[in-house]
Amino acid sequence: MNNPTFSIALTGVVPATCDSEAGDSSGADLKMRSAMAELCSAIRSALDEERGSAEDSLRRAAEILREMGANATGPEPARGGLAPWQIRKVTSYIEANLDRSIRNEELATLVRLNPSHFGRAFRNSLGEPPHEYVIRRRVERAQGLMLSTDATLSEIALDCGLADQSHLTRLFRRFAGESPRAWRRARIGWSGASAT
Q1: 84-195 maps to CATH 3.40.50.2300
Q2: What is the C-alpha R_g of the chain?
Q3: For 119-145, how does the pLDDT look when each residue is reduced to its tens digit (9 = 90+)?
Q4: What are phi and psi of 14, to 5 degrees?
């Protein structure tokens, strides 16, 4: 089926990367190139109506890609972000200390970074500044306590490291879009006098 007219008609169908040799020669890059070559070979064979050859190429490409996936060590940390151990250490510390004041300086010290670098790295990794993350976690903890206890909102505010009920209400409105009392009532039909 090596018809010159047929080949001309297929120009642009087979990706240009199949014929490219440019690029670096890192191990992952070489494996990716090998997988791409097998896929391109499968495409060419299929276009030439060589089904058996196409299936063999696809099988080899799948094996290369599966091997690459097995050798992967997990997601890389965000560029300029915290390492996975730093994220675990900081988030665990925050969870354990939500009932008290948490300063960026102590979080930075915990993962051996200066405060300004820590703030940027935290934002790159978790998508928000440390202070915003702590506030959001406090509001989420307050939501959990509102659903699982009969504690007053002022008690819940103190349990979540907030100054008072009005502080909780301000932050809660910002994150949840409604007052804590309305949120609690809507979810559990709770209308006790202690919710004021």
Answers
A1: no
A2: 28
A3: 999 999 999 999 999 999 999 999 999
A4: -80, 125
